[in-house]
Structure formats: structure tokens, C-alpha cells
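User: These chains co-purify. Model them together.
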Amino acid sequence: MTTVHRVASLALAATLLVTGVARAQDPRLLHRLDSTTLAAVGALLDSARTAELPVEPLVQRALEGAAKHAEPDRIVAAVRRLAGELGVARDALGRESSPAELDAGASALRAAVRPEDLTLLRQRRTQSLTVALAALTDLVVGGVPPDSAAAAVLALAARARDDQIADFRRAVERDIALGATPAAAAAVRVDATLHEVTNAAANPNTPRKP
Amino acid sequence: MRAGDQAAYAVLVARYRARLGRYAVHMLGDRDDAEEALQDAFVRAYRSISRCHDDARFGAWLFGILVNRCRTAGRRTARRQRMFVRDDVSLARATAAEAPESPDWDVTVRRALDRLAPALREAFLLKHVEELEYDEMAKLTGAKVSALKMRVMRAREQLRALLSEVERV
Amino acid sequence: MFEHDDDALNRMIDRLREPVEMDPRLDARVMARVASRGFRARAALVWEWLRRPRAVAISPIAGLGLAAAAALLVWALPAHSPQTVTPPAADVTPVQFVVVAPGAESVSLVGDFNDWDARLTPMRADRDGRLWTVTIPLPAGRHRYAFLVNGARWLADPSAPRAPDDFGTPSSVVTVGG
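Assistant: Joint model of the three components:
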């Protein structure tokens, strides 16, 4: 870092201290964002902290924007959008949700999955929802209509393991790449996976796929 | 490394099996024949892979091998009358008047395809089921675009006529 | 019921477009023939061909070839696919990333696991400079990432799901189960 840069950083930090915005400032952001963007993002981070939402995904979104040399407005908009999605995800998934679950939930909402379906998923599945939510999001991104994708993952939620849900998602993507209509692919693979899940439950000594 | 090469090719086979299988089954009308043609195509492709000149078009090149295999297989079974039998739909149940969504619709579809001359069936499947562009079809089949367009048009006319025959009964 | 001719034809086409399940044992039969004596000499040629970089594809079939070639490179290498990885009891799981980038001078893996800092996770090229790889430990969760080529060009991972685009450049997603 050059002397000028160092002095400028110190001056910036001093200014922010004075204005009180720097109180919760993540040092990673200090050197990657200009002062205006830093202030705007900082305010969003503070709100998120107050609302007890995970802050790390927001920091990462800002860092991504900085790395990609995005316009300041775009960075702020992206962080604001994600903060909103995390809030809705937390309302849908419950306050006990882990940061990873909330992040995955936010991605699902971004993909137009309904909050009600997130809540249903929480009701049906006792283990962590991170993989199930990620699979749901990836299905929709791959072309399965949100309702069909949600129905499929909900059908698997109660009994399938994380790796089975992940395999299901990969199988659907392969079928779509090979010409199947997305909704049909999801429906067919759900049946196959449920069959497998039922068989595995009936024959617990069957070895898992590597 | 050799085990890895074959494992890598096995992944490709698994990936293409369904998509290519669809064409072979509809073209040949018989699942056993289709599997044989598919196997042949994969094995030939492996053997001559260094001859695939345009790296980005492996799928298309493999498909071209399959189209050829299906032509050879079709000639072999030209004399045999085969019906496409799905699950437990028996030939005895195959009747003329069928609603589109019933299991007998599959038999209607199969019969209609069987009634097309192989060249028309091939062109129809490539255009409407595999959704290829005419210039891709020309590369795969060796036929001219104008000839292919004519074949697709005639296939559609014949299929329309066959399908409305069915409904009039 | 009498129907318009094209309706029946279109229904026929829809039916024909549905995927057809082929017997998965076909794969084993193909590989048995491929593995037989006459083909061993070809094996190295096949591997070399499969590793060659691909140009951007346009047609659906060519697109399949490109995606399949990229994807199988990940599967063929002795580590987990970066798509979804279910971890052992530990908190982190090693995940291998692979990208085909011939002629690149540098390729970095950049994502929300390394603060989007291109200096932190440089990838290593193979002998021919075409295949770039790196393996990193990742915690449970969904991670956004991309490859940065020559410090300037962003590449999404062709074998992974796409991340929604916030900034006008492509990104991908990997999920580590937890």
C-alpha cells in the first residue's frame, strides 16, 4: 500500500469514526469500497445486525460487487436486496435457523420460491434445510417451475437424506439437458427417489452409492 | 490413467444414453434394436474419437454415428413387422379409436410412425423431436436441406392423414 | 371426437419428445466392449481428446457436448464434484474446482469463501496449460464463486448451477451439505 493510500485510509477511518458509521465496519470493506458506498453498505449492515440477521452474506455480496468493479449503486442495491430476502427467509424458516439455512432460503426466495413453501419445508424436515433449499433453488434456476420444484422437494423432505436430495437434483438437471420438459423431469425423478428412499428404509444394510 | 479414460467415457455414455436412446427407439420401433444400435454407436465413437474434427460438436458427431447405425439396423429389420410395446399394453388392446392421453395413444403414435418411409421418419424425428436445424440435419444425414424440408413436409402430411383416419372410426 | 389435424400431430410430437429410459446396463455393455483388448491403445487418445478445450457451442447438441465434456472432467478427477458435497463429520469438506482455460496466464478461484479476493486462491495449470485446478476446504452452506482469468475475465463454472446475476458478470454456486 502506498503512503498516500495509507493516509487516505486513515483519514477515511477517522472520518467514519467521527460520524459513528465505522463502529461496526468490517475491515475487509474499508479498502475495497469508496467512502459513499461504504457508508451506504455500512448502514445496511447495521440494520441487519439490529434485526439479528446474518451479516456475513451481506459483506460477501458487497465484496463480490467490489471485485467485479460494479457501480456503487448496484452494489448497494444488491446488498439491500439480499438483506430483505434474508429477513423474509427468517420469517418463513424461523428464528432458530442457522446462517447457512437463511442464506440458502434467501436464494430460494430470489428464485421465486414462495415463503409458504419454505415454512412447509421447515415443518416437514427435522434436519438442516441447507441442502434441500439449495436443491430447490437450483431446480428452479434450471427451469423447473417454482411450484413443481417445491412440490418435489417437499415430497422428499420428510425421508430423504441430504445426499439423496442432491442426487435427485443432479438427475433432474441431466434429464432437462437431454430434452425432457423440466416439470416432467422433476415429477419422474421424485417418484424414482421416493422409491429408492423407501427401499433403503426397508433394507438398511444396502450400501450407499459412493 | 487408462482406468480414468474409460471412466470418463463411461460418464459420457451415461449422459447421452437417454437422449440418443429416444431417437433410436422412435426410429426403429423396437427397444432391443434401439439398444443394439445405441451400443454400436457408442463403441464406434470410442474407436474413432480422434476423427471427431470439431471438438465442440461431439454430441452432434455421436448423433451422426447413431443415425447411420439406425439406417443399417432399419434395413435389417425391414421385413419384420414389429410393434412398439410399452409396459403391459398388449397388441390385442390396440384398437383404432383412441383418445390422445390413453395408453393406446402410444400404439397409435407408433403405428403412424411405422407407416412412414424410413427417410421420412428420420427427417421428421430429427426436425420435430430432436429439434435440429436443417443445416445440422444435412450434416448428419448427408442429404440436402431442400430434400430434408420436402421429407419433413411429406411426413407431416402423411401423419396428419393417418391420425385423422384414427379419429374418424 | 373429431379434432383439428394439427392438434393431433402436435400431441404426437409432445409424446415423442418425452424422455425414454434406456436400460442403464447398456453402459456396462458398452464399456465391456470398449475395455476389450483392441481398444486399450485408444484409451490415451480418448483421454487426450476429452481434455481438449472446447469453443463456445451454439446448437443444443453441441451445447450438450460442451457441458458434458466440462462436467465429466470434474467427475473423472479423483475428488468430489463441486455441485453438492455431503461432508463427513468434520466442519469443512475439500472440494475440487476444475476449469478448462487454454492459453491463460493466470486463473484464480474467487468466491464468498475467500472474500472475493483474487490473490488468495490461484489455480494450478496442468502441463499443457489447459486444465486449471484447485482444491479448498469449504464449510457447510451455499457458496457463490467464479473463475477470474488473467485478472480480467470472469468465467462461470460450466458444470455448476448458475448464481443469480447481481453485477453483470457470471457466477456459479456450490452447495456443501451440512
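Chain B touches chain A through seven residues (CB under 8 Å).
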